[in-house]
Each structure stands twice: as structure tokens, then as C-alpha cells.
Design a protein that fits this description.
By secondary structure, the protein is mostly helical. It is built from 9 helices and no strands.
């Protein structure tokens, strides 16, 4: 069922240069179909198994793929089959590590995951630094802390460590600090 165009675009839909394309008509194409239609077919094919089979046929028919084509193919596969890992895609397309690592898709994922890892590292470093500072303050004010206190401080979240770091200024004992 075709949706009516939005009012702002209504005049343009009547132009002779505009051609309506129905994607369901591209799920099955002859093997000699133009490359642009084969790309479209990869996007509109339904089902996991059908998508995997279509990707394999497409890849075999268009060897070797240019790097830009490989990027597009990996992007289509990753959006249509998000449950696949980079290793699954590499195996499906018979790619060498060098091919996969050169693709923009792989590099984007590596950059995003690197940024996430960097952020996690910063957060972990902040937590360790604050825990060590609080343990130093506890030792200076109350003497050597017990193993239970050390464990509690080292396992605490940053917000809790901040709260204890303020409370240690007025606390008269470790029990009062954690109260």
C-alpha cells in the first residue's frame, strides 16, 4: 500500500522525472541484472538465511570487490544481520584479516570500541585513584584499616567515594565514616 506524499512534496510527485519504485519487486532478480539493482536486492531480501545466501552469491559474482564496495557490503550485512560478529562476516565473505581491517566499517567499529575502552579506563582509573586517596586518609586519621574496610573502599563507586571523602573530615571513627 502506497502512502500519500506529504503536502510539501505533493507537486514534485507529479513531475515526469519521478518514477515510483516498489522494493518488493526487487527481491528476485535475474543473475545478469545491473549491479545497482543487485545492491538494492541485498537490501530488500527478507530472512536471515535468504540474506546470507544472497550476500554469498553477490560476493562470488563480483570478485574482487573494490574497497568501497566491500565497505558497502559489510555495512548492509551488519545492519541486516546484527547478530553476526566481524569474524562471522569475514568467514562469510572469505576475507583475509588485512581485507577486513582496511574496510571503513571495521575501522569505524575499532574507533568506537577504542573510545568506549578509553572511557572505561578513565572511569576505572578515577575510581582507583579516589579509593587509594581515601584509604590513605583513613590510615592517617584512624590507623591501618581492616581488610573488610579496604575491600569496601576498593569496591565502592566513585560517587560513594566522593561522599566518604567529604565525610572523613568530620568523622570520629571508621564506623561513623561509613554510617
Amino acid at each position: 500500500m502506497e502512502r500519500p506524499p506529504t503536502p510539501a512534496f505533493q507537486p514534485y510527485t507529479q513531475l515526469p522525472q519521478i518514477r515510483h519504485i516498489y522494493l518488493d519487486r526487487y527481491q528476485s532478480l535475474p543473475s545478469d541484472a545491473p549491479l545497482s539493482l543487485q545492491w538494492l536486492q541485498l537490501i530488500v531480501v527478507d530472512g536471515i538465511e535468504a540474506t546470507i545466501e544472497q550476500v554469498k552469491q553477490f560476493h562470488q559474482a563480483h570478485q574482487p570487490l573494490e574497497l568501497n564496495d566491500l565497505d558497502l557490503l559489510e555495512t548492509i550485512v551488519s545492519y541486516k544481520l546484527p547478530q553476526l560478529t566481524a569474524e562471522d562476516i569475514k568467514a562469510m565473505l572469505n576475507l583475509a584479516d588485512a581485507d577486513l581491517k582496511q574496510s571503513r566499517f571495521y575501522q569505524d567499529i575499532a574507533r568506537i570500541e577504542g573510545e568506549k575502552g578509553e572511557q572505561r579506563g578513565k572511569q576505572q582509573g578515577e575510581q582507583i585513584g579516589k579509593a587509594n586517596m581515601l584509604l590513605t586518609q583513613i590510615t592517617f586519621k584512624f590507623g591501618k584499616p581492616s581488610q573488610a574496610v579496604v575491600k569496601r573502599v576498593k569496591n565502592a563507586e566513585v560517587e560513594q567515594l566522593d561522599s566518604w571523602s567529604r565525610r572523613i573530615l568530620t568523622a570520629n571513627s571508621v564506623a561513623e565514616l561509613f554510617a
